[in-house]
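Researcher: Before we compare anything, I want clean individual predictions. No alignment, no superposition, just each chain on its own. First chain goes here; please echo the sequence and then give the structure tokens.
Model: Echoing the first chain and its structure:
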Amino acid sequence: MRNLITFIWKNYFFFLFLLMEVLCIYLIVQNNYFQKASFVNSSNQVSAMILKASAYVEEYFYLKNENEKLAKENAELRTHSFVSFAKIVNDEYLVNDTSFHQKYTYTSANAVNNSTNRRNNYLTLDKGTKQGIKNNMAVITSTGIVGQVKDVSENFCTVMSLLNSKTTISSKIKKDGSYGPLTWDGEDFGYATLHDIPTHVQLKKGDAIVTSAYSLTFPENIMIGTVESFVRKSGEYFFTVRVKLSTEFKKLSHVYIVTNILKQEQEELEKKSESDK
């Protein structure tokens, strides 16, 4: 306090000058219409600029929360969308006045770690057993597939990315249903390879590649990418197709973990059939 008083005392001429300047400006503005109007307009403009800047700053800091809310809402919408239900053709179910039943549910998650420059890439999500996540669940984005859940802890899970030499996705040409396995060659994170497409298929650049119905993990018709090019190797009766991936793995943030509610039932039935052979 003593230092403050000393500072003011040493510079009181400067402070007195400022006070007189403010008083002069006040008197001029108050007693002259033109200056008063100009001052009010200028004040409004400055206030508007400050409020606008404040709104931008506030919007920026709330953007993360808004994105998370939107991701949760999208997960809820996907869960209740038509493609998440399976058609029931059994008359007994139709008698009960329902022709569809739930097959997939979606949980929104955030990527907290990710790699794209390795032979076997993984990412980490902020959802775990507390949220009902289990291994082998599918992970997708709004633009395409991401991979499959591998290991799960209480609050996190790791995902074996599509950009992994061990990942194989059952895929198909959307326009005619021709299917084959899709793998990654470990070179470019923007492309993958679709195998075993019959040579009678009329392929062209830009044809959509989606997930097939033969996957227990991914829902059918989830976007994978588009045809970039295709070749027929000597002595083979199939095309090898270079696919431009629709998912931008370098920009992964919000994703959806997909639960196939009927997966266990199908697996148990198929294992029983295999054991009878």
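Researcher: Okay. Second chain, same rules.
Model: Second chain and its structure:
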Amino acid sequence: MTDQQNTAASEEETAPQFSLQRIYVRDLSFEAPKSPAIFRQQWEPSVGLDLNTRQKALEGDFHEVVLTLSVTVKNGESGEVAFIAEVQQAGIFLIKNLDDASMSHTLGAFCPNILFPYARETLDSLVTRGSFPALMLAPVNFDALYAQELQRMQAAGETPTVQ
């Protein structure tokens, strides 16, 4: 019976583990350079979205993943910048016992998928507080973006690294 307990405990220690520890806003920025004049114009927005992720190994098996969403909205044909908003949505994740490829995918796609709804809501709230119409960003397929990045790295002769 003791051997069975030791085997079960050993398997539990080597089994993959994933746990979300905390989600938080790391940085937040909003700028409306043409206000209040922009509010008197016909609203014909064009939205530019830039997104980026980065990860950092913390102590032990903890990792910080930061998803940055930067939105620039221009109005009308003149292309005047109505507002610029940016959020760095971060999370701390406990990730144990994954091989390098699984760890890279988890940090590069799975964790950003978890963070994106929080970042999207934070941006929407920020924009409406600036007195602009709601900004409803479409969902993002981080698995596809991760696959594209892997292909780019392979073509360039680079190897993905987990920091």
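Researcher: What stands out in the second chain?
Model: The chain has three helices and four strands. Additionally, The chain has one domain: 18-155.
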